Amino acid sequence: MISSNIFLLILIPLTTAFLIPLLDLLHIKYRKILVGIAGILEFTVSFSIIFTNFEFLKKGTLFLTYNLGGWSPPFGINLVLDSLGLFFSTLVSVALLLITVYSIGFIGHHEGKYYVLLFLAFAAMQGVILTGDIFNLYVFIELLTLTSAPLVAFKRNRNSTEASIKYMFYGIIGGLCFFIGVILIYFSLGTLNMAEISSHFTELNTRMQLIIITFFLLSMLIKLGIFPFHFWLPKAHSACPSSISTLLSGLLLKIYIYIFIRIFWIVLDYNVIQEIGLADFIVYLSLTSCLLGHIFALQADDIKRMLAFSTIGHISMIVAALALNTEAGFYGGLLHVISHFLMKSALFTGTGYLLQYTPSHNIKDLKGVGYKNKNIFISFVTASLGMIGIPPVIGFISKWYILLAFLEVNNHIGATIVILGSLTAVVYYFRFITAGYERTEVGTSKKERHVLSVFYREKIVTMIVYIFTFMAVITGVSFKLFDLPLKAVIDVITNPAYYINYVLGG
Amino acid sequence: MRKFIVMFLLVFLGIFLYFNLSYLPAEKMISNNVSQHYINSGVKETGSFNLVTAILFDYRAFDSLGESTIIFAAVSGIVLILSRKTLPVSSHGLTFIVKRTLGLLTPFIFLFSIYLMTHGHLSPGGGFQGGVILATISIIFCIVYGSEFDQKKFSPQTKTKLETGGALLFILMGILGVIFENGFLDNLNLFNGEPGSLISAGNIPVINLGIGLKVGAGLAIIFYSMIQKTFGEETDH
Amino acid sequence: MIYNIVFVILFILGLYTVLVKKSMIKMVIGLNIMESAIFFWVISLSNTGNLIPILQTYMEEKAVNDPVPQALILTGIVIGASTTAFLLTLIIELKKLGGSINLDHIKGLSE
């Protein structure tokens, strides 16, 4: 079905990012207004797409396409929105509104090109989700790397700059492997459109299939931060301001999970991967990475480094659950995508607020910070309880489903590692929570970070923390709501033939 | 020690890679594939003789939008990191002979870049190539005449205006495609000449111009930011 | 076939530079060598010995080279140049802040 609205999802953040430097020449205060309007507009477009297509969503046959430039699919680029894309696209739209409002409070409007880069990153994310052409996907992945790296180096001190250099090096090498994969696909098949590649991929020589799969797998492992290639993640996620940590840890890695699903299930054929035995390799590598992530979090004294290692653990767990290729695995993995996004965002936004009272990020300086603002610290504790897996926060539900998925295929190692991860999470989260509640004399911090000293900015920041925590708890209570969308998404993933038929046949 | 292990592993990787690359099939699997279609009916459908430009700016114009956005993001990132409130300038140029020679050459360089930008659909060239040469004019001003001269001629505000102007021009052509034709970035019937003449090929020349401005201004901003940073520590010259 | 050998040699040289050299600027040069090797390989694959894909000078049907990889390479070159520019900016900033751009002095896991 041709829809005329889905390119607006990419166009709104892009135009906003281009208009901001012009508006700066007038007056800097207009920037806040423009940015707020753009966030609300994008949110309404996204929800209008859901509401106008609600019957299709219920039946599970939602499929919108849009041909850019008027050329039909293999000769031009097309945008495709199916249930899988809608799932992640709604996540991005919600995050856009919340992170933008948080940034207005946290960073204000004095900081140069922050909003330009933020909106370009959001446009790139929507572009990655909506595109139906594999070279276009590569361009948007590089755009994502290039817009998130300056944001990592935003504070302009030595730590941030080193973190950003490492992040860029790993990002560029991952992008190069992806590019080689795209070129191999073009020279062996002759087309760049995802639906056409999908319909002809199995006709290739098995050796060629294996080479292409290896290059894409290497690129995805580097970008997702799985064990041997995770060295960029802890430093990059801890050296940036908290709103960017929320963006990177909460949202960006989920976009790469979308790319992982899209490439390995719909464009290439996952059955090939399973026959060779590469699927088992991915599962065990991710489980190792999960265990190592949780173990390294135990020895982290810096609160943001601890949260970054926890991210490595959870993302590897999602990849392991997805790589099982069973319906329960998909259900648990995708539910954990939502729950990890909500909980990690609550944690990082709360940390951003709490860190204004401490001279450094170290645990020694966090003593007694829980009494500065009791409600925010309670939100922090609630979100960390969810990460450990305690009901009624949604983290319990999603971990339970992942555990069931591992037990269903009799993968006892996986089940053990999930439980071990939760147990270590208890230890490292409670270290910080007890430090927060220690009744010591916190000396007046000599740091001049009066970021949130203005009254309305403090209100905005605390409101966003409460919103994230509230959503984490509410979705935990009413998780059956997600049953319908998740079943639709699993239907799309396991039947790539529908995708091919809708794009090429119709 | 580490060097030798890495060298050893990499030699193995190289032999492995070479051996696997020979499995690439000689012919593409899909017979009536994309490039055959572009070669056969590219000129009829787009009106541009240069097939590479036709692919870049008409069939796959969305890729070029993403690519020019990458330059825009790189420029924004560089300005974010390197900008300082007070910009010390240096009026140190090169010697008299160089100044005179380049004074004579610069208009021709400018002409060449405009030629590349506007003739993108007739000969090898296009927006990106023309834009890069346009940026060298600002770089020549900085090196040969000193950055104070360059700041007087093209202030950073002018360069920012040019850059965002080029970007918004591209998006404007896309939106005009929605209004007049039927889709984003559709080919308008703007310049409807014979294929082969200068005024032809729909909205490809306009997009070329927009991208040329954007790339040129962007690279000039990058160069200017980098040298300001370096000159910052030398107090006076 | 000779083109494949050249590509592999250049790519491995670039990868060696990135993995072994200690100065960050040499790593950036190594990245550029890797990217140039890939672009060279793509052009060599698309060169089937026919004429260039600009049809102005020959209106009859003559065999032309494949224009699509050339468009892909243009995009790739621009992306490579932008990322190199940004990496060099970060290195300038690190040097200015008093850090060291030599990996021997950076503690912890290097590269």
Question: Can you tell me about this structure?
Answer:
The complex is a heterotrimer of chains A (506), B (237) and C (111). Chain A is an all-alpha fold and 506 residues long. Chain A has helices at residues 6-24, 29-52, 54-59, 83-106, 114-130, 134-152, 158-189, 194-200, 206-224, 233-238, 242-267, 270-276, 278-298, 303-323, 327-354, 374-388, 394-408, 412-436, 455-477, 483-494, 496-505; strands at residues 63-67, 78-82. Chain A has one domain (6-505). A two-stranded antiparallel ribbon of chain A has the order 1-2. In chain A, α4 (83-106) packs antiparallel against α11, α11 packs antiparallel against α15 and α16 packs antiparallel against α18 (412-436). The longest helix of chain A is centred in the middle third of the chain and has 32 residues, at 158-189. Chain A is globular, with a radius of gyration of 22 Å. The relative contact order of chain A is 0.10. With 237 residues, chain B is mainly α. Chain B has one domain. Chain B is built from nine helices and no strands. The longest helix of chain B has 28 residues, at 204-231. In chain B, 43% of the residues are buried. Chain C has a single domain, classed as Helix Hairpins. Chain C has three helices and no strands. Chain C starts with a helix and ends in a 15-residue tail after the last helix.
